[in-house]
Specification:
Layout lengths: L1 H16 L5 E4 L8 E5 L1 H13 L3 E5 L4 E4 L2 E3 L3 E5 L4 E4 L14 E6 L5 E3 L3 E3 L6 E3 L6 E2 L16 E6 L2 E11 L6 E4 L2 E11 L10 E4 L2 E6 L2 E4 L4 E4 L5 E13 L2 E7 L5 E14 L1 E7 L5 E13 L13 E5 L11 E13 L3 E4 L6 E13 L9 E3 L7 E3 L2 E7 L1 E13 L7 E7 L4 E13 L1
Parallel strand pairs: 1-3, 2-4, 3-6, 4-7, 5-8, 6-9, 7-10, 8-13, 9-14, 10-14, 13-15, 14-16, 15-17, 16-18, 16-19, 17-20, 18-21, 19-21, 21-23, 22-24, 23-25, 24-26, 25-27, 26-28, 27-29, 28-32, 29-33, 32-34, 33-35
Antiparallel strand pairs: 11-12, 30-31
Length: 452
């Protein structure tokens, strides 16, 4: 009930903030050509600024146009209305983006209130232009690290960002082919993301679907996310992540469908994930707590999950549920994970449930209720490996179990069944595996394990 109240408060607050009146301006009236070849940046920005100066309203991108642009800056009380059949195309040149890599977005809102994006059309980051060498395992990508402002192959522009903003809403729009992260909420509050379709190239690393970083009171609902990297990803880099609700979504990813971290310097509290389908993903529900932040009061409910191996170069070994806490390195510390509920979940997976705390970061009070776990192998990747990455122990050879547990205090298993495929039984060793010296306060009620 508390989660439902939070959800309704977020909806009512954000909806009230989005202006339904005010001016309605078209970017074509400011000189945008929409031919997909000439940059319309100036015309688009002029329309946004004029709309904001008039008290807010909507800036329209007429259907049929392809509006090529460098970074555009969204203002308070302005909604981009990208009509069905219209596209905003992100530029692919380094000079199309601000000097600071933290501001590399196609659409960027900074310190705004009541802004939004809608209309049924599409924002396209032209991510394929950043592929140096296509690779069915993992594409080799462009890196702009020559700027010195960022390092590694993650120096690429994101698609849409809301930074230090409040009462924002993104709805009824397609976000397509990001070069890096797709939708990024940073230190923002009262955000609503609904009826959004996200498509990223399946072989491109780091093209996350929705990253909720240091942001609170967030609602994500009725979204379709099909991308190469983490789909819904809370991160705590400079502050906590509280009151996140995600419901009624469909997800496919080559990484984790829902993943906490791995940036986890501050706490995650009061998250509610319900009625989500996870289809053929490399990992289902994941927590990678590596930097000292704590996780508490999280519920995952009413989910259908299928996982499979794609390639060892991606983190994960096809676990339907993966909960870990350990220090990233000698300069980090582990955080505690407590009061986590898994209710009414069914899965078909190529690996077991992985629950691994550490001596300095115990898992406490985990509850599994009404869970059906089916185990089946249909790829040829090597079994018998547990994946602790990033940091920690890396890849570790291990017997493969239906549920592996270590460093846990308090685990309740109620009405949980495990089913093993006869065709994929080889390589499996035990339904349950744990080190008695690291696990206590375990309760089993109506637990079963047999062969399909």
């Amino acid at each position: 009930m508390a989660s439902l109240i939070i959800l309704l408060l977020v909806i009512s607050t954000a909806f009230a903030a989005i202006k339904s009146d005010g001016s309605h301006l078209s970017v074509t009236d400011f000189g945008a050509t929409g031919d997909g070849r000439h940059y319309d940046t100036t015309a688009i920005q002029q329309a946004i600024d004029a709309c904001a100066a008039g008290g807010g309203g909507r800036v329209r991108f007429p259907s049929g146009g392809k509006y090529l642009t460098a970074t555009i800056f969204l203002r308070s009380d302005v909604v981009l209305e990208i009509e069905s059949g219209a596209q905003i195309l992100g530029g692919t040149r380094q000079e199309d983006y601000p000097k600071e890599s933290a501001r590399w977005y196609v659409v960027l809102a900074e310190k705004v209130k009541g802004a939004g994006i809608t209309g049924g059309g599409e924002i396209n980051g032209q991510g394929w232009a950043f592929v140096v060498r296509p690779n069915p395992k993992k594409n080799i990508m462009v890196s702009w690290n020559a700027t010195g402002d960022c390092l590694g192959d993650e120096c690429r522009p994101r698609l849409v960002g809301f930074i230090d903003s409040t009462d924002v809403r993104v709805w009824n729009v397609t976000l397509n082919q990001p070069a890096y992260w797709c939708l990024h909420l940073v230190r923002s509050s009262n955000s609503v993301v609904e009826d959004v379709k996200i498509y990223g190239d399946f072989n491109t690393p780091n093209n996350d679907g929705i990253d909720i970083e240091d942001s609170n009171n967030t609602l994500i609902t009725r979204c379709h996310i099909d991308t190469g990297d983490d789909a819904i990803c809370p991160k705590s880099s400079t502050g906590p992540v509280y009151n996140l609700t995600a419901t009624d979504c469909w997800i496919r990813t080559k990484s984790s469908a829902i993943k906490f971290g791995s940036a986890s310097f501050f706490d995650f509290r009061r998250h509610f994930y319900n009625n989500i389908t996870i289809f053929e993903s490399h990992r289902g529900l994941g927590m990678q707590i590596r930097d000292g932040g704590n996780v508490s009061d999280i519920t995952f409910s009413n989910m259908k999950i299928s996982t499979r191996y794609y390639d060892p170069s991606w983190w994960g070994r096809a676990e339907p549920i993966y909960i870990t806490s350990c220090a990233r390195d000698s300069s980090s510390k582990a955080g505690f994970i407590s009061n986590i509920k898994f209710v009414n979940i069914s899965s078909v997976s190529e690996n077991g449930v992985f629950l691994a705390g550490s001596k300095d970061g115990f898992l406490r009070n985990l509850k599994f209720k009404n869970i059906n776990l089916a185990y089946k192998r249909w790829t040829n990747y090597t079994a018998g490996l547990y994946d602790y990455r990033p940091g920690c122990q890396g890849l570790v050879k291990h017997n493969t179990a239906g549920m592996m547990m270590e460093h846990i205090s308090g685990l309740e298993i109620q009405n949980v069944s495990m089913r093993w495929s006869r065709n994929g039984f080889k390589g499996w060793n035990d339904p349950l595996q744990f080190k008695a010296s690291t696990v206590d306060k375990i309760s089993f009620h109506d637990w079963s394990s047999d062969v399909l």
